[in-house]
Amino acid sequence: MKNSLYLPVKTKILKTKKLTELEKYFQLDLSNFKKFDHKPGQFVQVAIPGVGEAPISIASDKNKKNTLDLVVRNVGSLTNLMHKLEDGEYLGLRGPFGNGFPMEEMKNSNLLIVAGGIGLVPLRSVIQFYLNNKKNYRSLTIFYGAKTDKELLFTDEYETWKTKGINLNITIDRESPTWKGNVGLITTLFNKIDFDYLGSKILICGPPVMYKFVLLELIKKAVPAKNIYLSLERQMKCGVGKCAHCAIGSYHVCIDGPVFTYEFLKDKVEAL
Ligand SMILES: Cc1cc2nc3c(=O)[nH]c(=O)nc-3n(C[C@H](O)[C@H](O)[C@H](O)COP(=O)(O)OP(=O)(O)OC[C@H]3O[C@@H](n4cnc5c(N)ncnc54)[C@H](O)[C@@H]3O)c2cc1C
Ligand code: FES
Known about the structure:
Number of helices: 6
Structural class: alpha/beta
Helix content: 10-25%
Oligomer: single chain
Number of domains: 2
CATH architecture of the largest domain: 3-Layer(aba) Sandwich
Number of strands: 15
Radius of gyration: 18 Å
Distance between the termini: 40 Å
Shape: globular
Largest sheet: 7 strands, mixed
Bound molecules: flavin-adenine dinucleotide, FE2/S2 (inorganic) cluster
CATH topology of the largest domain: Rossmann fold
Order of helices and strands: EEEEEHEEHEHEEHEHEEEEH
């Protein structure tokens, strides 16, 4: 029997790790799923009985078939309870949902990832996809911004990413005695880093205030709107296009997104 779209699958937490003050990493065991095949940029609905569900991005490599990585920021009722769960405990999971980034369409291009804060979570699965399929892409550059160096995610992976040829550029909003790198908003990187913006595909995920200013930079550089992909965050309920909770006009972020091109979004004021 196939897993039901609506019924959370009881899923064991294999490993947890506190990454920052607000973010916790979870490695989940997928053995209760008949099949789980995800694309970079897709999400799952995480359920805690009696509390509810929330959409959470998949942070792991699509080639890892038995486990799934999530990173959860403690912001509300469900995520607060998730932060109290430890190795060996269970939660409910439905998915994978959403369209993800069109990695096939982006073949033979330079890729630029622009991530703000927790926006790096879904893009980590793009980074891993790139590393497994490097011959299909020209290059990968990352612009990643966080408020402080204490909030940077996946810090123990940066050296590997760089060794494997990824051009990683990080900036933090405020100076800190423990930080020697770039300081300033993520948009400051656009003038500091030499990059072929016109011949590239740009993948953006972060808070709305960030992507508004990032879009202005890309428009200034005349990047075609069809080459800009944004992953949107919306309040969701069903995750499968039935409840209209996540609607943008006649489209649904849960099934038509969360990834949209700027070409699609630019005349939809309510989306941006
Ligand atoms: C596609 C997608 C992917 C996502 N990926 C991730 C991810 O990888 N990691 C992650 O941590 N999050 C992710 N999110 C965000 C996450 O789903 C939300 O933060 C979710 O609401 C958390 O659920 P909660 O029950 O803990 O929070 P909630 O209790 O729903 O609260 C969430 C926020 O809303 C505010 N809020 C709650 N109720 C009200 C109210 N009545 N009025 C005003 N404000 C209110 C809270 O203060 C809080 O800031 C993603 C969202 C989407 C759509
Ligand atoms: S969350 Fe129900 S339609 Fe998108």
